[in-house]
Amino acid sequence: MIEAQLLTKRYGEKTAVDGLDFTVKPGTVTGFLGPNGAGKSTTMRMIVGLDAPTSGSVTVNGRHYAEHRAPLQEVGALLEAKSIHPGRSAYNHLNALALTHGIPRSRVDEVIDLAGLGSVAKRRAGAFSLGMGQRLGIAAALLGDPQTVMLDEPVNGLDPEGVLWIRNLLTSLAAEGRTVFVSSHLMSEMALVADHLIIVGRGRLLADTTVQDLVRQAGGDTVKVATEDPARLRDVLAGPGVDIVGQVGSEELHVTGLTTREIGLKAAEHGIPLFGLSARTVSLEEAFMDLTRDAVEYHGTTTAIDTLGRVA
Ligand SMILES: Nc1ncnc2c1ncn2[C@@H]1O[C@H](COP(=O)(O)OP(=O)(O)OP(=O)(O)O)[C@@H](O)[C@H]1O
């Protein structure tokens, strides 16, 4: 469990983190989202005591990080800045960490396997690709078998296989009852792994919500369905809490209140062939952009916002 109370960090004139109040609970993956410069890394650094709050506080499992007797066994963190000696092998790096924290050597082999680093563990870490470096950072974070795991942009530099590995890893860590806190500025990636979202912009809390609620709020539970006989499908799908919109002469209906699965099953039950059945997928990105629009520090001229047909 991570608890932030009025957490604030100023660097001179700049307020990087501005009165954040949030709780990260065990047993789920919590995504920490926000545009570049929103204050995510600064918040994470304060959680593990690498930066001191200007005011407010943040605790892990009820204590400040520095007050834990065995911090590595309490919270494992992957932060953006790496501190690995380039001449040292992955194995030696993890072994040194284990030795200084009273962690058995057998755990080093376990995390090397877990991170898929077996074949490169004896190589110099300085020669590692970005993706291998990320895997080593994650291995180090898991070394103490911590109850709380915090990763800053873990998919950075990973290939598709690595991205999938991270997704499965995060989900299984949460399923084991751990607190999993992961930052990203990519809504699409977070939507695939996170159950809960904490969204920040310019250091302030913009939303503390479930993925499901954010989708709902953005109208993302609309399903687009096409059939030769939309009038009949409309009759079949009609019911309490179901809203159906269609245009005269169009084979397409927009349905809210039913999932793609429910619509597909009902149509099949009544022998109505469907030509298309899809949930709106861009709405999560749209919801994120709507929320953070005023909080983006650096607007590009040709960003993803343009591809959605919207102007920042
Ligand atoms: N040591 C520092 N000195 C001065 N300003 C800083 C320092 N660290 C961060 N900042 C500023 O604080 C703000 C928040 O930065 P932070 O790195 O926490 O954001 P972020 O959400 O992690 O961004 P990104 O997604 O780009 O990593 C930024 O405007 C940044 O320039």
Automatic annotation (TrEMBL):
Molecular-function GO terms, alphabetical: ATP binding; ATP hydrolysis activity
UniProt keyword list: ATP-binding, Nucleotide-binding, Transport
Listed InterPro entries: AAA+_ATPase, ABC_transporter-like_ATP-bd, P-loop_NTPase
Gene3D superfamilies membership: P-loop containing nucleotide triphosphate hydrolases
Keyword ATP-binding: yes
Keyword Transport: yes
Domain (ABC transporter) ranges: 2-227
PANTHER family, per database record: ABC TRANSPORTER, ATP-BINDING PROTEIN
Family under the similarity heading: Belongs to the ABC transporter superfamily.
Protein name: ABC transporter ATP-binding protein
Species: Streptomyces aurantiogriseus
